[in-house]
From TrEMBL:
Protein's name according to its UniProt entry: Probable lipopolysaccharide assembly protein A
Coiled-coil boundaries: 65-92
The species this protein was found in: Alitibacter langaaensis DSM 22999
GO biological process: lipopolysaccharide metabolic process
UniProt family annotation: Belongs to the LapA family.
Length: 97
């Protein structure tokens, strides 16, 4: 639980720093993207790009985390199954001896 609170505090601090840095930039710039171009304040553009990057990073991290979690569950089942087989073989060898 403590690591989630710590992670939330770190993310909140990063967001606050990004907003603070972006708030000092009032210049209007032209942003060209694939299909069009728009005029944005630099602070707005920094906030948007930071938010998109943060969300994209969390999604990619979440995908890898879920893959590892699923793999862990499958390996845990396999270990339980193999332990059960070892126990069955051990008991059958003990009965035979």
């Amino acid at each position: 639980m403590l690591k989630y609170i710590f992670g939330f505090i770190i993310v909140l601090a990063i967001v606050l720093v990004a907003i603070t840095v972006g708030a000092n930039n009032d210049q209007v710039i032209t942003f060209n993207y694939m299909f069009a171009q728009s005029d944005f304040k630099l602070s707005t553009l920094v906030a948007i790009l930071f938010g998109v990057g943060l969300i994209l990073g969390w999604l990619i991290t979440g995908i890898f985390y879920l893959k590892l979690k699923i793999k862990n569950i499958a390996l845990t089942r396999q270990v339980k199954r193999l332990n059960q087989q070892v126990n069955e073989l051990t008991t059958s060898l003990n009965k035979a001896a």
